Amino acid sequence: MPGIVVIGAQWGDEGKGKATDQLADRVDFTVRYSGGNNAGHTLVVNGQKYALHLLPSGILNRNSTPVIGNGVVIDLDVLAEEIDGLGARGVDTAKLLISANAHIIAPYHKTIDKVTERFLGKRKIGTTGRGVGPAYAEKIHRVGIRIQDLLDESILRQKVEAALDQKNQVLVKVYNQRAIDPREVADRLLAHADRIRPMIADVARVLNDALDGGQVVLFEGAQAHHLDVDHGTYPYVTSSNPIAAGACIGSGVGPTRIDRTVGIMKAYTTRVGEGPFPTELHDADGERLRSEGAEFGTTTGRPRRCGWFDALVVEAAVSANALTDVFLTKLDILSGWKQIPVCVGYDVNGKRTNRLPMTQTEFHHATPVYEVMEGWAEDISGCRTFDELPKSCQRYVRRLEELVGTQLSGIGVGPGREQVVMLHDLL
């Protein structure tokens, strides 16, 4: 039975939660393997909207065990709020498992994140200020605090004190901030220990045993390929590896466990924060996409930058992640446009290229080469088969599939769980 990875094929916010939710009631485990609460998934189930930040989308399906892997950095306050919020709405979170090796976002990580971003000024990255980058930096520096440290109060207090010995010097002398009391930080983290203790598990062992036993495991990425710290538009990226290969590192399973990799792509393109975006629109069309697509961040509420579909961006993700399938979302938002441009190449300093440029400099100077497709006026939100879509809409979809270079398995035609056109079953 398969291990399936679902990732974003653009700059995030493609609707991965919806695609994951489509599968989660038929899988045994749903695993979040990267990122922190700088990401968010919005799901609409039976007319109710759910905004998830740390919990995997499978939390809404009783048949699936939700898992937070070791590759995630966890703000315990946010996790508690999310669990309480779902509980108040009748969602059972008792099956949640959290890797003992996952790292914790401490309050001082958020302080450092915000003051550093302000210090950068015009060179800012566009972080969410949630402390994710500093938490990952401490992980790499081997001075981070892990979930398992909640089980040993003495160790946790020692780690917090050691971390703040150096960080308080920087906060006070460089950023002119007040020093942070390590006792207060430790007390705040330990306040979650009793509640979290039953959820802590050897996740790698649990998942490998499940796969050995023929169970299905769905690995859910946060952010997207082009926000990957190694393969994205660096430095305007996240601090982890949301690519498909990151599922192995962030959960503790080997690469031969992965049978299918599914990329989620929006019918147009968006991104938040800073960084290059060749097809970005600064006109009425861009405003219309933002308004009709409700393009505002799930986590921050920030308005997303909007532009036409960029086939080069998705093709690069298809190649680097060996995507077996793509799932197209928000196609319904394009209803009503008479013509819809699609980026099929770039002009970089007078030279045409059909591939993503290798360097950041070239990418910044890339201007899109468009192929204009015929639009459609019909409301497609009620379509459930491909043949029900307008002919020009069908041609648009098939052209995107051709350009990105892998099979299209599903199409989202509205925010609801049921608003999907399936072309190929993913299980």
The side-by-side strand order for the widest beta sheet comes to 9-7-5-2-10-1-11-15-19-20
* Biggest beta-sheet profile: 10 strands, mixed
Q: Pick out the low-confidence regions.
A: none
**How many runs of DSSP E, i.e. beta strands?**
20
Task: Indicate the percent of residues in helices.
Answer: 25-40%
Number of domains: 3
- CATH architecture group name of the largest domain: 3-Layer(aba) Sandwich
Report Rg: 22 Å
Shape: globular
In what range is the share of β-strand residues? 15-25%
Separate helix tally: 13
Termini distance?
9 Å
* CATH superfamily heading of the largest domain: Adenylosuccinate Synthetase, subunit A, domain 1
CATH class of the largest domain: Alpha Beta
CATH overall fold name of the largest domain: Adenylosuccinate Synthetase, Chain A, domain 1
Structural class: alpha/beta
- Mean of pLDDT: 92
Q: What does this 3D model show about the protein?
A:
It is a single chain. The chain has 427 residues and is of the alpha/beta class. It has 3 domains: 3-98 and 199-261, 3-Layer(aba) Sandwich (Adenylosuccinate Synthetase, Chain A, domain 1), CATH 3.40.440; 103-193, Orthogonal Bundle (Adenylosuccinate Synthetase, subunit A, domain 2); 265-422, Adenylosuccinate Synthetase, subunit A, domain 3 (Adenylosuccinate Synthetase, Chain A, domain 3, Alpha-Beta Complex), CATH 3.90.170. 31% of the residues lie in helices and 21% in strands. A 10-stranded mixed sheet has the order 9-7-5-2-10-1-11-15-19-20, sandwiched between helices. Helix 3 (107-120) crosses helix 4 and helix 5 crosses helix 6. The longest helix is centred in the middle third of the chain and has 21 residues, at 153-173. The protein is globular, with a radius of gyration of 22 Å. It starts with a strand and ends in a 5-residue tail after the last strand.
